[in-house]
């Protein structure tokens, strides 16, 4: 098994990290009664044992059958690792200070003949406590993100002025969903609540911008009866994201992989979603119409299945709306070659499922990978909206960047 050497190295490294942080635990409980010491030691090493079991569980479980459990195991290991790594900083700082004291004593006292340089320099109780407190913070934050953030749906509203918008479409309410990732869900009731929030907004049209599943079409089976209730007077239109193609899992053959994609496309249709595979449609009200263009996934860093020129061919409308999963498509192709596309709707980034949003201030690690990673952007007369995602992937939670239902209102002036 190729992964065994890596697994061994990972566990060994983690064990060494644990032994190092344990020095802080020993300092903090040093002067407590023996029973408290025993409880602290057992609790600390039990967490280590759980982490080892989580790593082994991840490698032994079937992804298709135990996707949530595997993601929980990965998250537990990652959270524990990050927490210990933060704690290590303070323990290492203590060792640097102790080394400086040792070196100073060696130089000064050896020169004076006092002989005190051989004495053991105790660890700082303050830094030991700081290490444990600092290490507990990531655990608390990311655990809260799993318990509270995963399904804490938020409706985000924006108004967009499009001068060419026909008067009959003035005030058109668009709902956007993206990145459902049904294979990650573990709470049907919460998901149903999110869909009901969307329906409560009474949108005129709904657009879904890709990643219905993580890898396999079967993942959405238990949620079809929920998402098929998504509807709007002018219809529900969808497209594919990078995860929908099954590129991140092993298949017995290309035929099996293609069959999976065909099944997923059929799921869209069975739910009443009009899936656009490098195609276009018109929204019509009276004698006026808007163009809706949907491309398959096209990203600078990910698979480029989409054909924008094919999708937009012969579309004649005063306003054109593009559904394209990956926001990097906007700068790479849409703006350079399709200046008549007024609004592009994307997702993909999830806002990294981690960050800070306070008023107009937004920060997330996602911004170091994507120029446009969340909310509304404008260049000249073209707009891009990047949805933060309805679901989650990998880490089964969200911190700061919460799951989103987008409501866009189009205005002519």
List the topology elements.
Layout: H1 3-28, H2 34-60, H3 67-112, H4 125-149, E1 154-161, E2 172-177, H5 188-200, E3 205-209, H6 224-227, E4 236-239, H7 254-270, E5 274-275, E6 279-285, E7 288-294, H8 308-312, E8 320-323, H9 328-337, E9 343-346, E10 356-358, E11 361-363, E12 375-379, E13 382-386, E14 404-411
Parallel strand pairs: 1-14, 2-3, 3-4, 4-5, 7-8, 8-9, 9-13
Antiparallel strand pairs: 2-14, 6-7, 10-11, 12-13
Helix pairs in contact: 1-2, 1-3, 1-4, 2-3, 3-4
Description:
The protein is of the alpha/beta class. It has helices at residues 3-28, 34-60, 67-112, 125-149, 188-200, 224-227, 254-270, 308-312, 328-337; strands at 154-161, 172-177, 205-209, 236-239, 274-275, 279-285, 288-294, 320-323, 343-346, 356-358, 361-363, 375-379, 382-386, 404-411. The strands form three sheets. It has a six-stranded mixed beta sheet, with helices on one face. The chain has a six-stranded mixed beta sheet with strand order 6-7-8-9-13-12. A hairpin with a 2-residue loop joins β12 and β13 (382-386). α1 (3-28) packs across α3 (67-112) and α2 packs across α3.
Number of strands: 14
Largest sheet: 6 strands, mixed
Structural class: alpha/beta
Query: How far apart lie the N and C ends?
Result: 63 Å
Shape: elongated
Helices, by number, come to 9
Q: If strands are numbered along the chain, what order do they take across the biggest sheet?
A: 1-14-2-3-4-5
* Percent range of helical residues: 40-55%
**For the residues shown, what is the average pLDDT?**
90
Low-confidence stretches: 113-117
Order of helices and strands: HHHHEEHEHEHEEEHEHEEEEEE
């Amino acid at each position: 098994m190729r992964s065994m050497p890596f697994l061994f190295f990972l566990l060994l490294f983690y064990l060494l990290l644990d032994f190092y942080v344990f020095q802080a635990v020993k300092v903090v409980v040093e002067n407590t009664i023996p029973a408290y010491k025993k409880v602290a030691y057992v609790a600390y090493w039990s967490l280590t044992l759980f982490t080892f079991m989580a790593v082994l569980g991840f490698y032994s479980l079937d992804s298709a059958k135990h996707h949530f459990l595997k993601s929980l195991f990965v998250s537990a290991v990652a959270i524990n690792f990050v927490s210990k790594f933060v704690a290590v900083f303070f323990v290492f700082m203590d060792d640097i200070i102790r080394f400086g004291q040792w070196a100073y004593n060696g130089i000064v006292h050896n020169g004076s003949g006092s002989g005190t340089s051989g004495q053991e320099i105790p660890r700082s109780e303050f830094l030991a406590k700081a290490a444990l407190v600092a290490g507990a913070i990531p655990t608390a934050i990311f655990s809260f993100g799993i318990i509270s953030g995963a399904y804490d749906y938020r409706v985000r509203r924006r108004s967009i002025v499009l001068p060419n918008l026909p008067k009959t479409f003035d005030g058109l309410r668009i709902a956007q969903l993206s990145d459902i990732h049904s294979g990650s869900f573990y709470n049907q009731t919460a998901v149903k609540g999110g869909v009901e929030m969307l329906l409560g907004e009474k949108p005129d049209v709904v657009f879904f911008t890709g990643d219905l599943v993580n890898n396999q079409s079967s993942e959405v089976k238990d949620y079809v009866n929920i998402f098929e209730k998504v509807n709007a007077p002018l219809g529900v239109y969808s497209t594919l994201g990078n995860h929908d193609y099954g590129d991140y899992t092993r298949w017995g053959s290309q035929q099996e992989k293609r069959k999976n994609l065909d099944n997923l496309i059929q799921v869209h249709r069975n739910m009443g979603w009009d899936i656009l595979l490098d195609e276009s449609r018109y929204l019509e009200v009276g004698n006026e119409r808007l163009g809706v263009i949907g491309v398959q996934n096209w990203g600078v860093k990910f698979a480029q299945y989409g054909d924008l020129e094919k999708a937009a061919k012969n579309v004649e409308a005063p306003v054109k709306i593009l559904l394209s999963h990956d926001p990097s498509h906007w700068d790479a192709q849409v703006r350079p070659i399709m200046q008549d596309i007024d609004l592009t709707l994307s997702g993909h980034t999830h806002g990294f499922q981690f960050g800070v949003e306070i008023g107009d201030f937004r920060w997330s690690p996602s911004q170091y990978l994507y120029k446009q990673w969340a909310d509304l952007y404008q260049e000249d007369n073209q707009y891009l909206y990047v949805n933060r995602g309805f679901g989650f992937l990998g880490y089964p939670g969200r911190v700061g960047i919460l799951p989103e239902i987008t409501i866009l209102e189009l205005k002519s002036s």
